[in-house]
Design goal:
312 residues, Lipoxygenase-1, Immunoglobulin-like, 45% strand, elongated
Amino acid sequence: MKKLIIFLLSVILTLNSATFAANEYTYSENEPKTYATERFENEMCEIRIFMWSTDGTGWYNNSGVVITVDAVDYGTVKLPHAFETFEGEETVLIPSGEVLFSWIGTFPTNYIGFEIYNTLGELIYTCPNYLPAGLFFTYQNECPTYADCLPISDFEGVYAPDIKQINLTWGAPESAYLTGFDIYRNDELIDHVSPATVSYSNDIEENGVYKYCVIPVYPFVCNLDQECFEATVGITSYNHNILIYPNPANNIIHIAGIDVAHIKIFNNIGQLILTQQHTNTLNVSALQNGIYFLSIETPTGHTTQKKLIINH
């Protein structure tokens, strides 16, 4: 009995030792990427790895980069082993802490490579021509928080009709991570300005309705409410009980409550798409799905503007 107990204990210890060794750096071909879902509260952080394969075959099935933070496994990253796979990119969400990067599997010299970027988009590691298995790079990661993701303040927009110019002003957020501001006109990016810029002007050449938005830019994703200004350019406002139906439309629209002398349809970036005279019925079947603006002029010269949605 004593020998049997000793034998069982030795088997258990051997199995535990083998399990620990196998779990130290494991990789499954069927599960190439397994990322931990746990993240520290309020942190906005990621590690991005850009990978390539010069011979186009991808990485060996048992190879990859293991990422741990303070001894917690956050995933194994690899370029899939597939024909004509030349490059790829993976992003791993991680918290602040000491990040260890380890290589597992075979490293074919001169055939594969990768670069590692931190949350701020900075290159922190470039792979050499050869890596032995095991730890190859240590990085102290500091994550920004939601407190660093700040909106603009005191936003104001003014339209100068005499020169057809939009003027925008705002207060810059006090965040060390701010990289600039994106300027949007009718949901289209038209400019990017520096973090020190707090005003912007834009000339309008065509009549229409224009929405300008200023969005602070950070090297991480910030879900901020937009600050926007909308201006009607070259269209005289005229209050009248006008009905556009059906709206949304897909074929024919009807204009009720007004005599139409001239009608123009603009797209959401102010471009003139369609024009017609002396009709209260308009065929819009050729328009693509989206938002449009109608400029409707009466026989007396008054003009009003209505929004139209096309949905085929």
